[in-house]
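User: Hi! I'm working on a homework problem where we have to compare a predicted structure to a textbook description. Could you give me the structure for the chain below?
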Amino acid sequence: MTPAIANHNCAAVILAGGEGRRLNALGKPKPLIPYRGRPLIEHQLNKLVNIRPLFISTELSALADYGQPLLSDGQAERLGPLAGIASALAAAHSRGCCWLLVCPVDTPEQPLELLPRLLEQADAQTPLLYAQCGERPQPLHSLWSTALLAPLQDYLNAGERRAMDFLQQQAAVAVEFEDETAFANINTPEDLGQI
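Assistant: Happy to help. Predicted structure tokens:
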């Protein structure tokens, strides 16, 4: 474990709860779709290997085989990724963590320097940071203070769902990354051969 991670008591969550409807033709849930010979979930697990606790936000029981705690957002209706982040913030806080790194399951080329780059600028005055490439924000590649759990729950309880709107409301700080392909996500079968 790197000193930066240990010093900041950082947990991580892989958001793997999306339906992946455009990938349904492949006959598997999105996290288990193979990319370069391994399921998408394994690509993210390998990138986050040094971060503990590491959670997977999903309703998919098959992901329990990967040995990480599975988190449900506890909602009957699909509330989107922010509900999964709220569950992970609560779980991280209960384990004494101050920070939560958020990563979606469908970006297998995510840069290894994501956490160190975000941590460089994180402090009490900057409790929410996200990756950005040029004009393209990547709000689900982000670092959250666990102190944001209450404001996020209030936002969700008000019926709001848009991640970028919440980040803007919280004056989140964008951290620039140059390689846009590092954040390319897999939404269709065609994407598997283009990244």
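For your comparison, note the following. Helices lie at 3-8, 40-47, 81-94, 114-120, 149-157, 163-169. The chain has one domain: 3-193. Good luck with the assignment!
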